[in-house]
Amino acid sequence: MEKGKMKKFNTTGKCIPEKHYMVDISDRVNAAVKMVDDGTYFTINRGRQYGKTTLLAQLKKALEDQYLVYSISFEGIENEIFESAAPFYMNFFGLLYDEGILNEGSDILKEASEDEKITGRKASGLITEICRISKKPVVLIIDEVDQAGNFDMFIKFLGLLRKKYLEKDEKATFQSVILAGVYDVKNLKLKIRSDEEHQYNSPWNIADSFEADMSFSAKDIETMLKEYENEHESGMDIGVAAREIEAYTSGYPF
Q: Cα separation of 18 and 54, whole Å?
């Protein structure tokens, strides 16, 4: 941070430790890192402004020494992308290419993002190849998956990831896949013939849920207020202020 430039409180988008006063969420990040280390595929589901995107940003930073991390988002993707395999996988690999343009396999990603005839079978093989040649285990993080949940193509994509997870002892694949959104994609049902008929098991039933409490206790809030007090020296009673904020907000970050 520039000399003399103080941090600010942030209520929109992700929080950046160097720019914003923040609650210390290192315990939540460490819990997610352990799940990645264990090779777990999992979901992070919380309401808007509950700190998911901030958590994912800090998680990526914590993982990067040990893993190759592709962190992408489905936010703002046009519905047409989900109509069939080719546009979906072209967009998917394009997002990976933009995220990891200097990584091993970037040429594979670029070619796949331009392949107008790419199929799910070919996409599966390309994921295997990308993970095989990487010098580090590969982690995939996808934020804002909610808008994709109504499309067959996305559910088929989850099925592809599930198949690769079940074959991971035989073929290279992602070390961990993390899907984040408001709703739990494990509840999605695989469509068979019509909107009325579904399988009972989601193609994402291999995944766990991230159970760490995302609400903030008074003790958590104190970590943010201490940052503020160190810069402003207002003389506030940090403990009292933290308890008041917790009581007023019920620990909801926004």
A: 13
State the average pLDDT for the chain. 84
Give the chain's radius of gyration (CA, Å): 20
Residue that the structure tokens 């690999």 belong to: 93
Q: What is the pLDDT of residues 141-178, one digit of tens each?
A: 999 888 787 788 998 999 999 999 999 999 999 999 99
Q: What is the pTM of this model?
A: 0.80
CA 163 to chain centre: 20
Residue with tokens 């000399």: 3
Residues 6 or more apart whose Cβ sits within 8 Å of residue 217: 246, 251
Distance separating alpha carbons of residues 183 and 114, to the nearest angstrom: 31
DSSP 200: S
Taking alpha carbons only, the member of 153, 90, 103 closest to residue 129 is 103
CA–chain centroid gap for 56, Å, is 5
Residue 86, CA distances (Å) to 27, 78, 115, 162, 205 in order: 40, 14, 8, 20, 25
> What are the tokens at 205?
């039933």
Q: How far is CA 172 from CA 19, 37, 38, 40, in A?
A: 39, 16, 16, 15
Centre a 10 Å sphere on the Cβ of residue 133 and count the other Cβ atoms it contains.
Answer: 13
d(CA 248, CA 190) in angstroms, rounded, equals 42
* pLDDT of the residue at 132: 96
